[in-house]
Design a protein that fits this description.
By secondary structure, this protein is an alpha+beta fold. The protein has seven helices and 20 strands. It is 20% helix and 39% strand.
Length: 371
Amino acid sequence: MANLKDSIDELMEEKKKNNLKQLLTDPRFMKIPKKGDLIRGVVLSVSNSLVRIDFDGLKTGVVRGEELFEAPEYLNLKAGDEVEATIREMENENGEMELSFREAGHRKAWDTITGDLKVGKEVDVKILAANRGGLMISLNSLPGFLPVSQLSPEHYPRVIGGDKGKILEKLQSYINQMFHVKVIDADEKSEKLIVSERAVWDDAKKSLLTSYKVGDVADGVISALTNFGAFVKFDEVEGLIHISEIAWQRIDHPKDILKVGDKVKAQIIQIDGAKIFLSIKRLMDDPWKQVGDKYKVGQQVKGKVLKVNPFGLFVELDPDIHGLAHVSSLGDMANKDVGATVKEGDTLDFEIISIEPNDHRLGLKLASEKK
């Protein structure tokens, strides 16, 4: 009998060891959660201000107040849903863990955004507010920024004269709209999130631009004017004609020659990624090639003052050829306020003192001034 009792005791002891081994290798006990950990559980109940969660029948946790997070995955929760939450406190006054969806959602949102950046995924963002530098956006419930420079041509605020008030007014009109963008910079540590609508537009247009090459001539329509040039729409793309490529003569603003809606022919002079640059003037004969047939050094001419600057006068000799009368060549005016003596539109007598066709420059002085 003794031997039988000893055998039974040995079996019981072995069973205890096996049970303990099984318990210790159970994933639920492999790692004891601690404050700050992200853990997964099942929703037990949901109210307006509190969500109660069960964690494998071991302990119950609660999420409440400001720790609720308005990300899509945390809205409309119901009993039985699996969720992730961050431990804020291991135990509250009721013996339950205090949890946070906000921290868990924040971390998950940044992980998603970082992944979007790596693969170049296109996403939709909501415009929350605007300032002169761009638009404040929300992505995965995180705040971000869409700079003006990263807007697509459709939304870029092309305001003649660059009026800052009108630019802001245009940007504010986008509030509450959804924009299709790409994440171009994301840093969780500094909480910097920058998105680009232009990047999406560029990708869409790159394939179209493969059918164009430098030297091609496009028929288009002026879609917008800015201080620095004119935008032209042709086919399904848009290009820029820099102010220096509009005409051979000097102009102060594209509106001096063009207006929105004008039909124009322009030559493609550069393709840079999805950006296309054009020229109107290169489809015209360069009038400076024949300037020597019209004008000679020492010749007396009449010219209309186009612009008065502290350093001199810009003068029109004819619609194609303009010259500069430096302030040092204005005789007695050199010691006076030129603008108080000469006005735009005045016609004066000048003498040509230099002609540089390759540089499109012609120097003048007042005819009364001796060499």
